[in-house]
Amino acid sequence: MSSMFRLLIGGRHREGSRLDAAAVHNPATGECIGDVACATVDDVDEAVALAAHGLAVWRAVPPWERGRILGHAADLLRRDADRIARTLTLEQGKPLAEAHEEVERAADFIEWGGEQARRISGRVVPGRHASQRVEIQPHPIGVVAAFTPWNVPLALAAKKFAGALGAGCAIVCKPSQETPGCVLALAQALLEAGVPAQAIAILFGDAGMISQRLIDARAVGKITFTGSIAVGKQLAAAAGAAMKPVTMELGGHAPVIVCGDVDPERAADVLVAAKYKNAGQICLCPSRFFVEARIAERFTARFVAHAAALRVGDGLAPATQMGPLANARRLEAVAQLVDDARSRGAEVATGGRRLGTRGNFYAPTVLTRVPAQAAVLDEEPFGPLAPILPFSDEAEMLSCANRIEFGLSAYVFTHDAQRQRRLVDALEYGAVAINGALVHQAEAPLGGWKESGIGTEGGIEILEPYQTTKHLALD
Ligand code: NAD
C-alpha cells in the first residue's frame, strides 16, 4: 500500500508506523482522490526529536541567509502555482482562480517572513553605571507546533511557516487531513529552497492525540492554531497546563453595517463577492448584514438577485463562481442553521437548499425577517448564508453587532466621515473594513479580539510570536 499523501519526517515522505490511512475526498464529486497517511505516537515523537536537531541547524543559519532561502521558496511556489492551485481546488473545492490567489498570498507570506528575518536585531539598554549595559537578544522560541485548517489550507499554513522559519524555529505542522496536498507542496518548496530537512515535519492523523503529544513535548516551545473557538480553547488550556505560549486565530461572525447614505446597489455588489468567496468559509467573511432601513429594500433586492445568479459548480470548471462546501459537516451545519431560522419565521429570499446529491453543493442563500432568536445570529455560519437585518436605531444595532463572543472582523459602509469614526470606534473587532472587502495581506498584522483569538499574524511583527528574548546584563 502506498498513500498519495504521506507524512514528512526528517525530510522523508513515509507512511505512518501502523500503516493507517484515511481517504481524502474531492468535495465537488465525493470521489476519493487518494489516501492520507496517519501518524502514530511514535511518529509524532520521532518528528519532534528530529525537529529539535533541525532547530539547532536552522537557528545557526544567519538570518540574512534564512531570508534568501525563504525568498527562493516563495519563487518556487509561484513557479508551481498551476499545479498547487489545482491540488487546492481538488481537495478543498474553491474555484481555480481563488486557488491561484491563495498560492500567491502564501508566497507573499513566505517572502515577507524572509524579509523580516533580515531585520532581526536586538537592542542595548544603558546601565545604571557608566560601564554597565543590558543587551536584549532575540532568540527562536523552540520547535513550533502548528495546527492549520481546511478552509484556506495553504495561505493559513504559510503565515505560520513564514513567522516560525523566519525567526529561526523548526516547525512541526498538523494540517487538516482533509486538505493534505497543498501543505505538503508548501513544505516541498521550502525544502527545495534550502530549509534543512529536519527543520520541517508534516503530520496527519488523530488531531487530539497529535496535538496533546506535541504540546507536552519538551522541545516544543510554541503552539499556534487556526480553527474554531471550541478547539482553540482546548489547545490553549493544554498549552497553559504545559506553560507554553499560544497564538490563536479563531472564528468570526462579522457584522456589516450599511448606512443609508451609500449606493445600495454598489454596496450589495461588493458584499456579494465578499460573502460567497470560498463559499463563505473564511473567518473574516461578512456574515450579519445590518442595513439602514431606508435603503434595505434596494440593497436586499440587488443582493438577492446577484446571489441567485452566481454560477455554482466544480471549482475546476472555468465558469464556476462558487464551489462546493469543503466537507459534509459544513453542508449539514448550514442546512441546520437555515432550517432553524425558517422554523422561527425567517424568510428564505433565495437558496436555502442543497444543490444535487453529488458533492457538497449548497445554494447561495439570503435570509430576511430573521428573528433575534435564530441560531444564525449567534453561530458562525461558515458557509454561503447571509441574514439581512434592517435597522433604524444605530445604538440598538451596535449593541447587537457587539453582543456575541466573536471579535474578528467587521465592515462599515458609509461616506459620512464622522459616522465612520463613530462606528469604527464602537466596534469591538480586531479588523474593520470601510467601504470595501477585507483581505489579510502579509505586510499588516491581523488578529481577533475577545474569543476570536490571541495575538496577531503578519506585519513587521510576524516573527515576534516565534521569538523569546534573553536579557544579558554586562558589567
Ligand atoms: P472543528 O472544530 O472540529 O475543527 C476546526 C479545526 O481544528 C479543523 O481544522 C480541525 O482539523 C482542527 N482540530 C480539531 N480538533 C483538533 C485538536 N484536538 N487539535 C488540533 N486541531 C484540531 O470543526 P470543523 O468542522 O473542522 O470546522 C468548523 C468550524 O471551525 C467552523 O464553524 C469555523 O468556526 C471553524 N474554522 C475556523 C477557521 C478559521 O480560519 N479561523 C478555519 C476552519 C474552521
Automatic annotation (TrEMBL):
Keywords: Oxidoreductase. It comes from the Bacteria. Residues 20-471 form the Aldehyde dehydrogenase domain. PROSITE patterns: ALDEHYDE_DEHYDR_CYS (PS00070). GO terms for molecular function: oxidoreductase activity, acting on the aldehyde or oxo group of donors, NAD or NADP as acceptor. The keyword Lyase does not apply. Belongs to the aldehyde dehydrogenase family. This is NAD-dependent succinate-semialdehyde dehydrogenase.
